[in-house]
Amino acid sequence: MSLRRIDLLPENAPTTSLFGRLKQAFIRLTPRAAGATPRDSLIAGAGAVLGISLTGVITSLLVPHAPYLPYIVAPMGASSVLLFAVPSSPLAQPWSVVGGNILSALVGVAASHHIDNLLLATGVGAALAIVAMSLTRCLHPPGGAVALSAVLLNHSTPNLGYMYALSPVGLNSIVLLAIALVYHRFSGHAYPSRHPVAPKSPVGTSDPPPQTRVGFREEDVDAALADLHETYDISRDDLAHLLRRVELRALARVHGALVCADIMSRDVISVEPSMRLDEVRHLLVSRGLRYVPVVDQARHCLGIIGMPQAMAGKGTARNVMMQVTTARPQTPVIDLVEPLTAAGVHEVMIVDDDLRLRGIVTQTDLLVALTRVPDLGGA
């Protein structure tokens, strides 16, 4: 079966103006990093100032002066771009920075020693650096420049040894990385990037967890990447995590006006911390409850207790109560999806700013709320 393109525009429809076409071309040629903001750009710039300056100073203090070797190699400038501007990139992680730069330097020195032709040595050095970094999973774009600089430096300064890979390249990389680790503790960015853990069954069975049974699966991400035949600057796990977040945001757009105060139970059965466990057990059985909150006389929510804890033996609720998951009355209902699909969480206690109990939202409450047909009258 053959497909043909159907032009839905009228035959005499005006085409896009020259200015419009130039604007579209400019947008295509100037992509912006996903999630980047002007604030992030300022943070990255400040980090690069500290990183490059301190790396040069520290290296000069640790390494005796050698007239033919710089205190800091030029590719560190490119490494600083990754470390401070896109710290979540797989190309900016510690093993990529240190391993990629050192390995590339070794490859570059080897190429300069075994290939007499300068142009051929530069090409082979950069190419082998890419292959070596890819095979050892430390791909770092500045590594290509490190290999190239090693070839050029050996050409102007013969007998460049393999120690070049450790000093200044390795030392530069480690110092710059250490500065980035400290800097990002205050920048608001997590570094090294904490790759999300794939959801697992809350009860330890082979079944996929509830949040992954509907919608895309891990194999769908793999198949989509294979379809596109491209390599992206984001890990597979981070991409899957991002797509799940997109699903939640889309759901929030539909149910965005719904907050916990709209669906919570307000007449909440609770126990005091001094209640005996046999009394707690009787209350749970007689009321058909799975868990019950523990509150003090001022209704401050202290914890939660269920039948497993109540069966612990003698004592009071205070001795066995568990940590409680809480939310505010104005918290969007959609924000409860993640905690209420986590292992062991069946209820979320709704508290005010003073942590006084105002209500409770259960898994059943959430299910009913999300299956409610949204008001699309204004759409």
Folded structure, characterized:
Strand 3 (326-327), helix 14 and strand 4 form a beta-alpha-beta unit. The protein folds into three domains: 39-187, no CATH class; 210-255; 261-370, CBS-domain (Roll), CATH 3.10.580.10. 28% of the residues are buried. Helix 3 runs parallel beside helix 7, helix 4 (94-114) runs antiparallel to helix 5 and helix 4 (94-114) packs parallel to helix 6 (142-156). The protein contains 15 helices and five strands. It has 379 residues and is mainly alpha-helical. Helices cover 50% and strands 6% of the residues. The two termini are 38 Å apart. The chain has a three-stranded mixed β-sheet with strand order 3-4-5.
Keywords:
379 residues, three-stranded mixed beta sheet, 3 domains, CBS-domain, mainly alpha
Please give the count of helices. 15
- Briefly note the structural class of the backbone: mainly alpha
**Strand content of the residues, in percent?**
5-15%
Largest beta-sheet characterization? 3 strands, mixed
Helix content: 40-55%
- Residue stretches low in confidence (pLDDT < 50, at least 5 long) are 5-9
Number of strands: 5
H/E element sequence: HHHHHHHHHHHEEHHEHEEH
Sheet with most strands: strand arrangement: 3-4-5
Termini separation:
38 Å
Let me know the average pLDDT: 85
Taking all Cα atoms into account, the compactness measure Rg is: 30 Å
Q: In one word, what is the shape?
A: elongated
Overall tally of structural domains = 3
